[in-house]
Structure to design on (93 residues):
């Protein structure tokens, strides 16, 4: 992953066997549909990017890590509904 992408991003860690990850994906898609100018989401698959799971010490999915100006500003290690996710994005970005 290009470091530039991580300057301002929401890293969404998921895996194929996580039921909550599928639900979270629907929430993220709805958010992006309604807020195309706030599309900071980068999906990180456990099988494809174990290096990022290790770098950010992700042990559970779904996990969302909010990065602003290259620094981690928030971590959510649980499912967020659309309202919770929207509030977090408004607060940090």
């Amino acid at each position: 992953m290009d470091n530039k992408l991580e300057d301002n991003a929401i890293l969404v860690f998921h895996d194929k066997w996580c039921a909550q990850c599928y639900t979270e994906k629907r929430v993220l898609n709805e958010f992006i549909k309604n807020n195309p100018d706030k599309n900071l989401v980068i999906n990180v698959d456990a099988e494809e990017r174990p290096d990022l799971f290790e770098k950010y010490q992700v042990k559970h999915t779904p996990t969302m890590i909010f990065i602003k100006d290259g620094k981690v500003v928030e971590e959510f290690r649980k499912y967020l509904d659309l309202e919770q996710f929207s509030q977090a994005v408004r607060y940090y970005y």
The first helix runs from residue 19 to 34. The chain is about 35% helix and 25% strand. The first strand starts at residue 9 and ends at 14. The mean pLDDT is 91.
